[in-house]
Amino acid sequence: MPVGLFRVCLLVITAIVNHPLFFPKENGTVPENTEEIIRKMKEREESLRLEQLRLEQEIADQEATQKALEKAAVVVEESKEEKVRWDMWTALSMVIFLLIELWRQDFQEGNWQDIGGEEDDMAVLGKAFKGVALPDKAVLASFYEKRILGTTGDMARMREMVEGFADDLLEALRSVCNRDADMEVEDCMGVGSMYENWRVRKPFVCDLIVPFAPPEPYCFRCQTWCSGDSFPPDEQGYGTIKVCRANEDATGCICDKTKLGEDMLCLLHSQVSSTGPSSEMEDLLCFKNTQYLDADQVMKWFQIAITKAWNRISHKYEFDLSFSLLDSPGALKIKFKSGKSIAFNLTPVVQYENSDVYFISHFPRSGLAADIPSSTHWFLTFAVYERRFIQLVSKTLPANACHVSCLQILSFLHGKQCSLTGPSGLTNYHLKTVLLHLLQARPSQDWAPEKLEARLQDMLKFLEKCLHEKKLYHFFIGNGKVPAELGFPVIFQRAEPLNLFRPFVLRRDIYRKMVDTFHEMLRNMSALINEYTVHIPLAHTNGIRKEPL
């Protein structure tokens, strides 16, 4: 009870003391302080609001920048992924394309001779033959008998005369040469159309090759493009000939392989001989400062030797002998007092090992070796094997087979066309190569004489196919089906096929001229044949249908 009264009293006293009427002066400034505080609070609130707006704007700008960066990063990432995918597809497409191209080339090279059973392929060829018809069998037979058959006897007489004179000339050449220092010349051999009995155009020209060898103790070491040495593509079909001593390794002197002793000196590699170039190899017709046989030096030596030989025997003959062509060093011409003349080619060659393949210095009247890389590069000729193959196949063909007739007709037509429109890259050697392929591909009975027209069509269609593809492979090089009876070197059978049309791939002007000449020959074929054909009665042609090619 006393405690409760004490609390009541304390409360009353506190209320009286804190009443505003007792302290008027102290409480008179309260309203002014409150307004100031409110004003400051409003200013502070306004500044805080502005600061908030500024911060919000900065945050918004940062978020926009971040979003832009993220979007750019996504675009870059997507572009990288797209580029990776594109590069992957591009690479994959290139690989597929290369595989297809390699397969196509392997397939073509693997089947470049398998044309015997491709009758369907032959049927779809011949686009250039539309509207072109060969003369019928009677016209072809009359043309062949009148224009071509009569030249066989002339060729035989000319071959006999030229061979006899060439043997006499070479015998005189041996007598004027120094047997200890000059090249040793062997007997000549006849090659080419005159000796394969298919040359038809005059003037008749005999092609004779003359093998030669170096004097003892030297020998020739031959290297070909397919012997393992690196030859660039434009040198395929060529080789080099190195002049070495018989007891010297092909890669160097025997002093490199043998210990001579301290008191012995190699005369070839002595200090005296190493100070200056030796003229020994130049005397052996080598290129300057090398051991490689120089074709130009050989032809120069051969011309001089032929001139000396003729001076020795000229009194025996009643005609003159001269070099007929400057660009063909071995081209000779016999001139009779009556004004008649006989031309023939006498070309020195080097035998490849123990085969009948020869390195030939120059190709007379031919575009086969028009762009020789250098005078130390010799082209290989397989003319002897080509002649033997034709002779071998002819024994298995029917009597009076038409294979030679086909080649003679085509050679005649091509020569006539070139005389009208000018020469082209297509040569008689290309025509003969076509025949060799077909002789190997077709059975013997297909070359019966009554099938002349059909085989002539086959040759034209095969040639058109080769012109279209720009591929005509050499018959022997890379051909694993060469008859074993020929004894052909295996190294050339295992080599990559040699495309005879390869020089025309980059020379589009010559290729276009060659194709145009071929097509023009097709269009003029009937007119050219009829021009040299005797009149055939109409009764002979009744019932004979002209088959379009």
From TrEMBL:
Coiled coil spans: 38-72
Keyword annotations of the record: Cell membrane, Coiled coil, Glycoprotein, Membrane, Nucleus, Signal, Transmembrane, Transmembrane helix
Gene Ontology, cellular component aspect: nuclear outer membrane; plasma membrane
Record membrane topology: Single-pass type I membrane protein
Domain Mab-21-like HhH/H2TH-like: 404-477
Organism domain of life: Eukaryota
Pfam entry (one): Mab-21_C
GO molecular function: protein kinase inhibitor activity
Primary localisation category: membrane
Protein's cellular compartments: Cell membrane; Nucleus outer membrane
Secretion signal span: 1-20
Presence of the UniProt keyword Nucleotide-binding in the record: no
Family: Belongs to the ITPRIP family.
Function: Enhances Ca(2+)-mediated inhibition of inositol 1,4,5-triphosphate receptor (ITPR) Ca(2+) release.
Name of the protein: Inositol 1,4,5-trisphosphate receptor-interacting protein
